[in-house]
Design goal:
124 residues, mainly alpha, Arc Repressor Mutant, subunit A, two-stranded antiparallel ribbon
Length: 124
């Protein structure tokens, strides 16, 4: 893995990263209650904003917009033209995003093994 210096926000001295710890840096990007659910939906084949809002967790649209933008900014997902030919766009995982698949599988497997009444989510 490349060792990059902590990124800084333009116009402020506040670092985007709390520390160089890879766990902390990953949590800074993915460690809220919604972001990994968006990644999960992408892995399940969902690509459009409306697909994400239809998920059972009911992510608020303002939060969804923010999380999609964060994932694009960190190059975990990319905006792509909609497959239906409309002027709208969809999202797809980048190679960096696809590399989250083993992590997502481990989280799913842990939940299935240790949390009662969980089940595997199926693609739409």
């Amino acid at each position: 893995m490349p060792n990059a210096k902590p990124a800084r926000r333009t116009g402020t001295t506040r670092a985007l990263r709390r520390s160089p710890c890879p766990v902390a840096c990953t949590l800074d990007i993915l460690g809220d209650r919604w972001t990994l659910l968006v990644v999960r939906d992408l892995l399940l084949g969902r690509t459009r904003f409306r697909d994400f809002t239809a998920s059972p967790e009911g992510i608020p649209t303002n939060i969804l917009s923010d999380r999609l933008e964060r994932l694009v900014r960190h190059r975990i997902i990319a905006r792509v033209p909609a497959q239906d030919g409309t002027r709208r766009f969809g999202y797809q995982l980048t190679d960096k995003g696809k590399a989250l698949m083993p992590l997502m599988k481990a989280i799913r497997d842990w939940g299935l093994a240790w949390e009662r009444q969980t089940k595997v989510m199926l693609s739409p």
